[in-house]
Amino acid sequence: MRHFLGLALLCSFSYAQFEIEGHVGIDTQAYSSKQNKHSSSITLEQQLKMKYDKDDFNSVLELYAQEDYTDINSKKDNDRSYIRVNEAYVEYEFEEDKILLGKNIRFWGALEAQNIVDVFNIQDFRNDPFTTDKIGAYNFEYAHYFEESEFSVITKLYEQNSDMATSSYIYSALNDNEAFNDNLNTENSQYRPTVYLTYSGSLSREYSLDYAFIYQNGYDSQRYMTKEDNTYTQHAYLVNKFMTYNTMVVNSTLLKLEATYADVINDKQVSDYVHVALGVEHTLDQLNSGSEIGIIGEYYYYDTFDKDKFDDIDLGQSFQNDLFVGLRYSLNDEADTQTVGGVIFDTQYDEQTYYVEYESRINDIVKVTIDYRYIEPSDSYNTVNAKLEQHQRVGFNLSYHF
Question: If we measure between CA atoms, which residue out of 37, 45, 49, 86 comes closest to residue 67?
Answer without folding.
Answer: 45
